[in-house]
Specification:
single chain, about 350 residues, Rossmann fold, 3-stranded mixed beta sheet, about 45% helix, about 15% strand
Length: about 350
């Protein structure tokens, strides 16, 4: 099969491309990425020269480019991962999130419909459900209650995708995952940021009281679920993908410090993010029972492997966090620390 992966140089995207080349070696994977701050072609350096991996630099909002890619490479299905994805950035500048996540998805859907592709897989997030109380878990029928510009843009993209199924009969599947972690994650996210700062004995900024709870999922377990959804998912359905590893943010931070032999005195509590959802938890029973998905690793093993990867790949995260990005990031947290 010939598939298009949008955002294939980002964190989840690059891991998915690598997973597909390993687990579906006969598939041709065309990787479309705009290479913004979080997209890095170096993430796939090990696939250089692979004839079944084709990289195209471009925007999902460019309809002429999409038509050309689909015709030239005989694309049969799309894994849609391209998105602006960091909540903090959506608070500072919502416009690009609407442009890419909503309008870009619409352009991609129109191209898929015009070329009558076999399947369109929309990769979404548990953040579309909003915040949970102290108990329970999100199911596919939970109300959609996004609380940030980022999650609102992803909710919109989900609903437009599902509307193309109900209105035009397109074969679409939507997946919603819990927080991913693993190799090649851009170091503005919690786990890689804490690892990088701890390794350099820098303060570890923790929002609010550190009591926000997330459900953690290793990126390779997520990739396995995405392939199952592509191959076996029922058209028009939503599948939640959760790691079953609820942890408070402060517990994650302390675990990282312990594994690296660093003191907890490095922790700095900073002013909380506006509209910060308190708790997420995903019920993955549907994808387990209907598609047979199961995780390959525990959270403890996955976190240990992830820490080792960042220790062994210091040159990678030092390069991607250099220059203007580092200045932006350090200023952001310095301001929150002062306000705390």
């Amino acid at each position: 099969m010939n598939v298009l992966v949008t955002g294939g140089c980002g964190f989840i995207g690059s891991n998915l491309v690598r997973y597909l080349r390993r687990e579906r070696p006969s598939w041709k994977v065309v990787n479309l990425d705009k290479l913004t701050y979080a997209g890095n072609l170096e993430n796939l350096q090990d696939l250089e020269g692979d004839p079944n991996h084709v990289f195209v630099k471009g925007d999902i909002g460019n309809r002429e480019l999409l038509d050309l890619i689909i015709r030239q490479h005989g694309i049969e299905a799309i894994f849609h991962l391209a998105a602006e994805s960091h909540v903090d950035r959506s608070i500072l500048g919502p416009e690009v999130f609407i442009q890419t996540n909503v309008l870009g998805t619409h352009v991609l859907l129109e191209a898929a419909r015009a070329h009558q592709l076999k399947r369109f897989l929309m990769v979404s997030t548990d953040e579309v459900y909003g915040s949970l109380g102290p108990t329970g878990a999100f199911t596919e029928s939970s109300p959609l209650r996004p609380s940030s510009p980022y999650s609102a843009s992803k909710t919109s993209a989900d609903l437009v995708t599902l509307a193309y199924h109900h209105t035009f009969g397109m074969d679409v599947v939507v997946t919603r995952c819990s927080n991913n972690y693993g190799p090649y994650q851009f170091p503005e996210k919690l786990i890689p940021l804490m690892i990088a700062n701890a390794l350099d004995d820098k303060p570890l900024p923790v929002y609010g009281d550190g009591g926000n709870v997330r459900d953690w999922l290793h990126v390779e377990d997520h990739c396995a679920a995405l392939v199952l959804a592509m191959e076996k998912g029922k058209s028009g359905e939503v599948y939640n993908i959760g790691g079953g590893a609820e942890r408070k943010n402060i517990e994650i931070v302390k675990a990282i410090l312990a594994m690296l032999g660093k003191p907890e005195s490095l922790i700095r509590f900073v002013q909380d993010r506006p509209g910060h959802d308190r708790r997420y938890a995903i019920d993955p029973s549907k994808i387990r029972s209907e598609l047979g998905w199961k995780q390959a690793r525990t959270f403890e093993d996955g976190l240990s492997q992830t820490i080792k990867w960042y220790v062994d790949h210091r040159s990678w995260w030092e390069r991607v966090t250099s220059g203007a990005y580092r200045q932006y990031f350090e200023t952001q947290y310095a301001n929150r620390l002062k306000a705390a």
